[in-house]
Amino acid sequence: MIFQELPEQLQDFLRVLEYWDHILVGLTKTLWLYVWALLIGFFLGLLFSILRQYGGRILSRIATGYIELMRGTPLLVQLFLFYFLPFSLNALLEAQGLPFIPIGRWRFYVSTTIFNRTLTVVLLDHATLIGILTLGLNSAAYQAEYFRGAITSIGTGQLEAAQSLGMSRRAGIFHVVLPQALRRVIPAWSNEAAYLPKYTLVVFYIGVSELFAKAHYIISEIFLTLATYTIIALIFLVLITIISKLLDFIYKRTAIPGL
Amino acid sequence: MEIKYEPVLRVVDLWKSYEDLEVLKGVSFDLAEREVKVIFGPSGSGKSTLLRCINMLSPPDKGEVYLSGQNLIAPSVNINAIRARIGMVFQHFNLFAHLKAIDNVSLGLRRVKGLPKEEARVKALETLERVKMAKWADHYPAQLSGGQQQRVGIARALAMEPDVILFDEPTSALDPELIGEVLQVMLDIAKAGTTMVVVTHEMGFARAVASEMIFLDSGIILERGTPEHMLTSPKSGRVKFFLKQIDILYGRHEELIKLPDEDENK
Amino acid sequence: MNDVPNFATIFFYILRTGLPATLMLTALGLLIGFVLGLTLALMRVYGGKELGWLASGYEKLLRGIPVLILISIFSFGIPGLFWYLEPLERPLAGCILALGLRSGAYQSQIFRGAILSVNPGQMEAALALGMSRFQAFQHVIFPQALRLSVPSSSNEYAVVIKDSSFAYGVGITEITKSGLDIAGNFIELWALSMGVVAIIYFLFTYPITRIFGERQTKKLKKLGMGGG
Fold first, then answer.
1. Is A105 in contact with A126 (CB distance < 8 Å)?
2. Where do runs of H (alpha helix) occur along B76-137?
3. Which of A88, A103, A230 to mutate to probe the C interface, most C CBs <10 Å?
4. pTM: predicted TM-score of the whole model, two decimal places
5. Which member of A168, A171, A258 has the closest CB to residue B142?
6. Which of A208, B110, B259, C9 is 20 to 30 Å from C174 at the Cα level?
7. Percent of chain C, pLDDT > 70?
8. Contact criterion met (CB < 8 Å) for B143 and A175
9. Number of domains present in the structure of chain C
10. B97, A256: Cβ pair inside 8 Å?
11. Using CB atoms, which residue from B57, B143, B156 is nearest to A257?
């Protein structure tokens, strides 16, 4: 057989790749988590950066506090905190005899069959929801810092000019500052966007079945630790490179002279 | 026979402080329609602050401002609507970097005055024509020289058809060769009847179109008068010294620029 | 202790039990990262095409692989690794190595940026005095680059101490794991325990990034350094 003649490492890789259906499911789940986290992080981060810059004393402090807290604590701890919170609250409520928060075992999934193997990706269940929310909230704090940098780099003159025309502060922020800030932030933001997939792994610890979890499963079946992790690592490298190049391309396409 | 008229702009006893520093200490003047006033003085005298008090970008601590009779300090006033009637041209142009020249001029027309897109565009183009920038309508600010950017800035203010336009040292940030084209535009619109308050040390401009010149020093109006009076026989020694410094700067004086020594009278 | 632990008990238990491992992971990880990062930065700035390409490749590789995977690989992915250590010590060593290799890639960028932002005139002046390039680097460029790198380095410290929480997954009792331990079977404590853990991490990150981040940048600007 041809396989016997290949070097041992390559044989290992091929054996891992026999689980391509699991890998594909894991990858899809990872991408799913990534896209949602990125989106939530984008809108929430933009909101927080605007609040921090233009919000007035109270809102600005709240926004800053949120950002510093999320950036100063590990993602894993945040994940555990949000995941445990309903359970802990339930335990406390139960002790008092009060009605508690229902945490059912519900799930939304899609399923398809390719080459005689069934692939099922769970789109949403309790753990996935918590995972997406935590990743999104966390990413928002980091993205907010990028947006803030872009906003401050634009300078106060632009808003002054808009107001001198008679635009309200809100209109000035929305029509003059933000369009420029969003274009200026693309290089730094692409950094965050490209590397975010790396952090989605952490949801493995609350039982979400994404790529890292699949790696553990495969290892538990064939015990080829190094080969499995290497393949997973390669997948991430390729994914990140693709996203980077894509964002680079978009940036060059939408460039405005002087921005 | 005395004709009663309401001045376009009335500035009454303005006071403004930043932290502990008193920048304006009781400044007052009137501005009639079609009048051009030039405000000049040493840096830090409060000239920029004065302009920003007028259009409430930085409201005064004490005093009042009236635009065509309307009190701008009153709490019930819609300050955005007021600002649409006061134009401003900035020292550093502050053109909207993400918009082409034509869009810079039409943005205010569309978003503040509510003009439909096509009408705003036509009007913007006409205004650009007045400042001789119609050819560059589709250029971005970064593609324009400083003088060209400032002319677009003037068009942006002009297009709103304000009651008065405030100029904050419009040529101070320009290379010498580019100052002329901007001053020419300002002369043109002054002669066409625009009501202007101009902070500048371009004395040629003042001599040509100013009806009054005001010397501001440390937040107080030290002297005021017609250009002939101020430029030939000012009363205050401070004004004399300042005008001499400007002449030295432009090389019109026999003395060369001196290094600081004991003779410096401040 | 048969009664339910309270906030203070949890707090001090975690500090006693988990903090040593966390600090060791962070300190050693940063140290390895420092040596590695400096070397790579020198390779990229002064090394010429091949060395520069090599260093750049390493950076891209280590930045693209999730740190969790690195930890997994070095903790039990390579059977012969750390043969000289006790089996129980190997995951710790694996984590330190993983954190160090990753940090090296990021510190390389930090130092490269800092070196490049030292005014080029400085090197010129040093050479004009007759120093060799190595001397110039040692006595003129490096001290300034080091000061310029403080804000970014304080940020990297925060990243590494936060990443050390992943050591929980390979069984090391650092802050996060001890937080889970003390909560034990008391479900109502789990959230509180994690809250305490979060506070502890925050206490170790925010003050440092605050002091060495912004203020340092402002001080540097006052001294007129950097900004080549």
1. yes
2. 79-83, 101-111, 117-130
3. A88
4. 0.81
5. A258
6. A208
7. 91
8. no
9. 1
10. yes
11. B143
Q: Is the distance from CB of A155 to CB of A164 less than 8 angstroms?
A: no
Residue A100 contacts C, CB cutoff 8 Å: no
Nearest CA in chain A to C206: A72
Choose among A158, A164, A171: nearest Cβ to B88: A164
Please classify residue A13 by burial: count the beta carbons closer than 10 Å to its beta carbon, then call 0-12 exposed, 13-18 middle and 19+ buried. Answer: middle
- Give the pLDDT band of residue C213 (cuts 50, 70, 90): confident
Domain-located, residue B58: no
Distance from CA of C138 to the nearest CA of A (A): 32
Alpha helices in chain C (DSSP H): 7-46, 49-64, 67-72, 90-117, 120-128, 133-136, 142-148, 150-163, 175-183, 187-209, 216-223
Q: Tell if the CB–CB gap between A163 and B83 is shorter than 8 Å.
A: yes
| B67 in any annotated domain | no
The CB-based long-range contact list for B114-123 (8 Å cut-off, 24+ gap) reads: B123/B159
Q: Residue A6's pLDDT band (boundaries 50, 70, 90)?
A: low
Cβ contact B81–A166 (<8 Å): yes
Domain ranges for chain A: 2-253
Strand pairing category for A117-125 and B21-31: unpaired
Rounded to whole angstroms, the Cα distance separating C24 from A123 reads 39
pLDDT of B56 over the 90 cut: no
Matching CATH number, A2-253, of 1.10.3720.10, 1.25.40.10, 1.10.10.10, 3.40.109.10: 1.10.3720.10
Closest-CA residue of C relative to A67 is: C206
Upper half-sphere CA count for residue B223 (Cβ side, 13 Å): 17
Convert the pLDDT of each residue in B205-230 to its tens digit: 999 999 999 999 989 999 999 998 98
Indicate which of A156, A160, A165, A168 best probes the interface with B, i.e. most B CBs within 10 Å of its own CB.
A165
Fill in the amino acid letter for A208: V
Contacts A232 to C, Cβ<8 Å: 69
Tokens found for residue B189: 């619109």
Residue C114 · residue C148 · CB < 8 Å = yes
> From the list C66, C195, C206, which residue is nearest A201 (CB)?
C66
| Concatenated DSSP letters of A139-179 | HHHHHHHHHHHHHHHH-HHHHHHHHHTT--HHHHIIIIIHH
The answer to whether A183 faces chain B, any CB pair under 8 Å, is yes
Q: Who among C64, C73, C162 is closest to A236 (CB)? A: C64
Residue B33: DSSP 8-state: T
Asked if residue B174 is part of any domain, the answer here is: no
Nearest residue on chain C to A233, judged by CA atoms? C65
The answer to whether B98 touches A179, Cβ cutoff 8 Å, is: yes
Residue A201 touches partner C, C-beta closer than 8 Å: yes
List the chains bordering chain B where 3 or more Cβ pairs fall under 8 Å: A
Least Cα separation, residue A114 to chain C (angstroms): 28
- Count: domains in chain B: 1
Which has the minimum average pLDDT: A138-142, B56-60, B197-201, C36-40? B56-60
Residue B262 predicted with pLDDT over 70? no
- Residue-range definition of the domain harbouring residue C36: 8-223
**Across chain C, what does the average pLDDT equal?**
86
In the predicted structure, residue B254 carries a pLDDT above the cut 80: no
Cα–Cα dist C226/C228, whole Å: 6
Tell me which residue range forms the domain holding B140.
86-161
As for the ipTM of the complex, it is 0.88
For B159, the closest chain A residue by CA position comes to A165
* A201 contacts on C by Cβ (under 8 Å): 66, 68-69
pLDDT of residue A1: 47
| For C66, nearest residue in chain A (alpha carbons) | A198
Helix, strand, or coil here: B170?
coil
Contact assessment for residue B51 and residue B199, using Cβ atoms and an 8 Å cutoff:
yes
